[in-house]
Amino acid sequence: MTLKQTLESHDTIRYELYVKGLNEETVRAISKAQNEPQRMLNHRLKSFEIFWNLPLPTRWPNLEKLNLNDIIYYAKPHQDYQWYANNREDVDPGIKKKFERLGIPEAERKYLAGAGGQYDSLNVYHQIKEKRSKLGIIFEDMPEAVRKYPEIVKKHFMKLVPATDHAFAALHGAVRSGGTFIYVPKGVKLTDPLQAYFRMNTFAGGQFEHTLIIIEDDAEGSYIEWCSAPKYDKASLHAGLVEVYVGKNAKMKYSSVENRSTNTYNLNTKRALVEENSYMERVNGNLGSCTTMLYPCSILKWDNSKTDMLGIAVAGKGQNQDTGCKVIHIGKNTSSKIVSKSISKDGGINTYRGQVIIKKSAENATNHTQCDALLFDDESVSNTIPLIQCDNADGVVAHEASAGKINESELFYFMARGLDEKKSLSMIVNGFFSSVVKKLPLEYAGELNKLVELEMEWSIW
After folding, report:
1. Beta pairing partners, 152
2. Residues sharing a CB contact under 8 Å with residue 15, sequence separation 6 or more, in sequence order
3. Beta strand 349-358 with 396-404: parallel, antiparallel or unpaired?
4. 263 with 227: CB under 8 angstroms?
5. CB neighbour list of residue 128: distance below 8 Å, 6 or more residues apart
6. How far is CA 393 from the centre of its chain?
7. Which residues pair with 287 in a beta bridge?
8. Which of 59, 71, 99, 441 is the most buried (most CB within 10 A)?
9. How many H-runs (helices) and E-runs (strands) does the chain carry?
10. Spatial separation of the C-alpha atoms in residues 68 and 28, rounded to whole Å
């Protein structure tokens, strides 16, 4: 089975509970299924009320074909499955086999500090290596964390991205399920990454995982998310939410590769709060999905905080990748760097939609944004829409953008040395993305390169 088949074919799983339609009964059913305390149900109901009073976005990608009442908001597998485990060997054999085809067990053994997985609305398992847990590091699925660590969750949950932020944040607050909770205590360095794999398998399904990451003062963390979904002929919805808190003198690296099928609307929200002398690094890969709206944000609230945000996007036939980055400079001597690289082919649309805000308090703040695009034909589209707001005379902001086609001389160079056109094209594309891909761990960089090659496989230059 090829990697592309692995990621697009659906798994045969029997379900005992589908929660479909957008109403209060759905919200209550999800809360009950996850055995939540009353305060979390109250939060859901309040979010649901807010959702009905917020308009859906209309200015950017068209969402008219997304019928929210057709979405299955919660899918529970049949009770015969051994669904949740703290050890991979105890996971249902069919699910375990899927992970093995994706190469996750091998990666976990080699260099991961811990790994977890989610199918549809439920977590499959979470496991952290013992020597890491002894340091006080917590790595749990989100519903379990709600029960085990109520005070930590209460302090941080949907504080960075409240339900009032936008319609899909409110929807997430109402129907969320699953997700990941990471806590790295003060002074602990977690250099080996933790990983979670999210699989959306249900026909016309929705996935609404919530990821909450807390890195305390003088600590360090690293986390990788890998997402996929099978291809159906009906719209699916992914509206996850990620909140990251980076304490003083701390570091956090967050990497995400999303390869959802072209029937999926990927409407994700990710935000980080970065304290004094701290560093937040993001690496994002966006492939698949018919429509993506994703604008990760870092808030540099305290002095000397820093963020780097690196992303790639591939848009093919029928795809609209509307992505970008937001950085808000508040503290003094803050700095940010944004690198965005995109490929548009077969009429696909790529848009970089960025926002850099330098507040009056952000003395000596600096930002550099670079957007590079490759177009494979005359029908494809690449847009760059930066919004820069600088309220401080000391602020330094630089934005550069480039767009063009594959260089004929480069293609000839490779082919003259014995490579066929397909391989030559793949090498050029991988070279174009290399500055971002090399920031991933070696095994993940290789997998992302394979995915990009598969996206290019049927392209005509």
Report:
1. none
2. 75, 76, 77, 78, 202
3. unpaired
4. no
5. 113, 114, 137, 139, 194
6. 35
7. 259
8. 71
9. 12, 26
10. 17
Nearest CA-CA partner of 352 in 316, 404, 398, 400: 400
If residue 174 lies in a helix (H) or strand (E), which one and from where to where? helix 167-175
The vertex-60 CA angle with 54 and 66, nearest 5°, equals: 65
Does residue 163 contact residue 243 with C-beta atoms inside 8 Å? Answer: no
CA distance 291 to 286: 11
The H or E element that residue 275 is part of is none
CA dihedral 415, 420, 424, 430 (to 10 degrees): -160
- How many CA atoms does the CB half-sphere of 26 hold within 13 Å? 23
Other Cβ atoms less than 10 A from the Cβ of 313: the count is 29
Nearest to 250 by CA among 186, 338, 180: 186
Mark residue 31 as left, alpha or beta (left: phi above 0; alpha: psi -120 to 50; beta: remaining): alpha
| pLDDT in single tens digits along all 461 residues of the chain | 233 333 344 455 666 667 888 999 999 999 998 899 999 999 999 999 999 999 988 878 989 889 999 998 988 765 554 444 555 555 556 555 655 555 554 554 454 566 666 666 666 555 666 777 889 999 988 999 999 999 999 999 999 999 999 999 999 999 999 889 999 999 999 988 888 877 766 666 888 999 999 999 999 999 988 776 655 557 889 999 999 999 999 999 999 888 887 889 999 999 999 999 999 999 998 888 899 999 999 999 999 999 999 999 999 999 999 999 999 999 999 999 999 999 999 999 999 999 999 999 999 999 999 999 999 888 999 999 999 999 999 999 999 999 988 878 888 888 888 888 878 887 888 888 888 888 877 666 776 777 777 676 644 43
Q: Domain coordinates of the chain in residue numbers? A: 3-294, 409-461
Measured distance CA(313)–CA(107) in Å, rounded: 24
Give CA–CA dist 426/3, Å, rounded.
16
Neighbours of 81 (CB within 10 A): 20
Distance (Å, rounded) from C-alpha 359 to C-alpha 355?
13
